[in-house]
Amino acid sequence: MERILVIGANGQIGNELVTALALQHGADNVIAADLGPRNPFAAAHYEAIDVLDRRLVARIIDTYGITQVYQLAALLSVTGEQAPLKAWSLNMDGLLNILEIARERNAAGKPLRVFWPSSIAAFGPGTPQDNTPQQTVMDPTTIYGISKLAGERLCQYYFSKYDVDVRSIRYPGIISYKSPPGGGTTDYAIAIFHAALRGEPYECYLSADTALPMIYMPDAIRATIALMDASADRIAVRSSYNVAGLSFNPAQLADAIGRQRSGFAITYAPDARQEIADTWPHSLDDSVARSDWNWQPRIALAALVTDMLANVAVVPQEVGQAA
Ligand code: AKB
């Protein structure tokens, strides 16, 4: 029986992951944790903890007899640029704390399986942008991307040196409707739906032809859980796996929305986020994830648009703007 701790549970991924894990393992076996007060999760347990407090995290892990930790707490690409030192400290020390706890537990014969999210932000201007391979040049330009690349190397290091069973995905931009994203470059692909539902035109902060890899939340959750459920001998990559969902640019997304919401209009006013997006891949080669643990995306663009339009709540202000 697994006992699972999700740190960063109030965030965009954490919120939906907790629900999915509670369905799979039973609500009593999932402990949601974050800085703030509890969200109304399906999980039976909630702990207010700071991932930077290693002693407290270790105590929670012992108290609940945790066997798997998902460490999701992080600052993303846009908010990271606004507070680079805070982003570095949270993104790196948060991961290191969990890896160190896992190392100690391995030594004590109480292994802990760890999930940690990397990102397409770990790539950079020297990376081939089309069908970006699993192994390639990685020269990130944002503090977020640098922390993701360093984190990938830490994951590989703790696996090679201490046999820590750590697993990771390089998430594309994640599109979802249940909770807003928090300060990413790919957030336009959510904000655009809110504008469409308000019946307003959308002013996009990226240019019309800026293609980026994206994934719909149900696919992202499926990939995450499939990777964590795979037997260890299937996991050949201990840094982080490329996982692709779909790939499109703002003009293609606006066109797909326009087919289902006639009259929808988009304008373009690229800002500083354009410079970040210009260094990221257009699309990913995820053949290694497909062959290692049978990854297959399910949701195509038209179906994603239908589902988002049916489920996004109409909110008064746009989400996904840089603060
Ligand atoms: C961001 O835009 O910063 C994130 C990411 C791609 O990791 N969504």
Overall CATH class of the largest domain: Alpha Beta
Order of helices and strands: EHEEHEHHEHEEHEEHEEHEHHH
Low-confidence stretches: 315-323
Please tell me the CATH architecture of the largest domain by its name. Answer: 3-Layer(aba) Sandwich
Mean pLDDT: 94
Helix content: 40-55%
Give the structural class: alpha/beta
CATH topology of the largest domain: Rossmann fold
- Termini gap: 43 Å
| CATH superfamily placement of the largest domain | NAD(P)-binding Rossmann-like Domain
Instruction: Walk across the major sheet and give the strand order.
Output: 3-2-1-4-5-6-10
Question: How would a crystallographer describe the biggest sheet?
Answer: 7 strands, parallel
Q: Radius of gyration in whole Å, from Cα?
A: 19 Å
Describe the structure in your own words.
The protein has 323 residues and is an alpha/beta fold. The chain has eleven helices and twelve strands. The protein has helices at 12-25, 54-64, 77-82, 84-107, 143-162, 188-198, 217-229, 250-260, 272-277, 287-293, 301-311; strands at 4-7, 30-34, 45-48, 68-71, 113-119, 165-171, 173-175, 202-204, 212-216, 241-242, 246-248, 266-268. A seven-stranded parallel beta sheet has the order 3-2-1-4-5-6-10, with helices on both faces. The chain has a three-stranded mixed beta sheet with strand order 7-9-11. A two-stranded parallel sheet has the order 8-12. Helix 6 (188-198) runs parallel beside helix 8 and helix 8 packs across helix 11. The longest helix has 24 residues, at 84-107. It starts with a strand and ends in a 12-residue tail after the last helix. Residues 76-77, 119-121, 144, 171, 173, 184-186 line the site of 2-amino-3-ketobutyric acid (AKB). 2-amino-3-ketobutyric acid binds next to loops.
